[in-house]
TrEMBL record:
This is Type I-C CRISPR-associated protein Cas7/Csd2. It comes from the Bacteria. InterPro entries: Cas7_Csh2/Csh2 (IPR006482), CRISPR-assoc_prot_Cas7/Csd2 (IPR013418). It holds the Pfam family Cas_Cas7.
Amino acid sequence: MSALNHKIDFAVVFTVDKANPNGDPLNGNRPRQDFYGHGEVSDVAIKRKIRNRLQDEGEPVLVQSDERRSDEFRSIKDRAESVSELKQVLNKSKAVGADEQTAERIACSTWYDVRAFGQVFAFKGTKMSIGIRGPVSIHTATSIEPVDVTSMQITKSVNSTTNEKDPGQKTSDTMGTKHRVDFGVYVFYGSINPQLAERTGFTYEDAGKLKEALKTLFANDASSARPEGSMEVNKVFWWEHDSKLGQYSSAAVHRSVKVEKVQDLTPKSIKNYRITAEPLEGLNVEEYDGL
């Protein structure tokens, strides 16, 4: 595989329509919002979806959701220690540079998400802690405008246990609340650092797999909070620089993305927006519509 030898930037625009894209556990699982009311989706949630898409395509992933496991291991520690050579290094009594490099090489060559996002190997019972920096960095997704959050009171009538006083009657109903974003257009940005890619072994082919995962980010991601079709990737921008440093800073590239209203109306559809990337001299951009 060919090593990644040039900087890459990317941007993804997606819509949320009557869904909870990323609930805040410290706020009753309401959709995340910043101080100004703009919706947010954490970078951790985005990376989870990328990992899921890569798993769907058969890529080996270290950090797996328990309900989507593709192996018999229930924890990251068990999955890491299933690689005997890596387990031997992690259980050495003294960390030395050569050992850390060996562990990094093994982990990066074994799992896609480790060589992409990095990973900290610090487990109870092991003698060595190792931190790996990955080349792929992703920002928090933020909505273009403040979002309206609707809360809905629901009744949970599931009769989950037998009524001990009167088995012929169902148990009492319980009340709950669901929250959703009525409509919002979100954008997030990311970059791939070639210097770190050289260290972890992240290749040009790996970058191509990431690009494909971004196009179908919400495939196989449906849930009660995010019904099928309620979240959609609308546009992916992909810039490949001609050097490791890049012709422009990532900030300048990301600022070139413009998401503007076509009409001064309350937006209810992505059709109310114009999504463009201003041209940057000497730097080409590939544009993809969501699938």
